[in-house]
Amino acid sequence: MEKRQWKGNLSKMSTRLDSPILYQLRLGEDMVNMTNAVGQHVKVKYTGTINCINCGRPTKKSFAQGFCYPCFMNAPQNAECIIRPELCEAHLGKGRDPEWEERNHNQPHVVYLALSYGIKVGVTRATQVPFRWIDQGASKAIKIAVTENRYQAGMIEVALKAFASDKTPWQRMLKNEVATNVDLIESKDLLIDKLDEQWMEFATDDDEITKMVYPAIRFPQVVKSHNLDKEAVLEGKLEAIKGQYLIFEGGKVMNVRKYGGYLVELEIES
Predict the structure, then answer these.
(1) In terms of domains, do 112 and 176 share one?
(2) If you count Cβ atoms within 10 Å of the first and of the last residue's Cβ in the chain, which end, N or C, has fewer?
(3) Is the pLDDT of residue 166 over 80?
(4) Domain check: are 27 and 116 in the same one?
């Protein structure tokens, strides 16, 4: 048996569209291939230290998946328009940090339709396709519209939420319960027909369907979320990765992104 060990602050896993998807976890100076760890014994140990993923300062409590309280209150990454893009004012030269908004939100955005347990409408920056779809654990996805900025994409999403959900049932997603009777192109066309004329110009005729295959030995029948704050060690056979979740034998799951900034020790035994 070979044991490999790393130590560092957690952040969301980077991904690459492949078959299966390549997941890599940065810990310190190292990039750990987590896709290759599926099927192996993995141990995650929380050391008790948290550093803000934005400013790096130590914090006793993490807010919004890795921020200290001041950054949670003031950083542009936590502005209300992150959750509600229809409130974005980047195109007006406004926001918590207008320069950050210009770089990140006054840029082309995609309104998309993703398939997992059911269909979901969402918004992401154009440069985040397909990474956003992978992070949400989608099995398939298709573009509905391409806009000039986040506000326009948010307004289209609001218009479509009456006809398609904007939420993903995370437990069903982790069980790999995927709707098999949905035609994404047909669903896209039906949604576009619901748009007001002012938004129709952004509808795209790009009907390419992106498919995501996740690394897995098996998916769980029952999902049990692991809390590192209450139980500092999580270990066992890693059986799958989906979204930003590590899925262990017995259905124990850990949302890596939830614990952003947590200083952990990782051990993989093969």
Answers:
(1) yes
(2) N
(3) no
(4) no
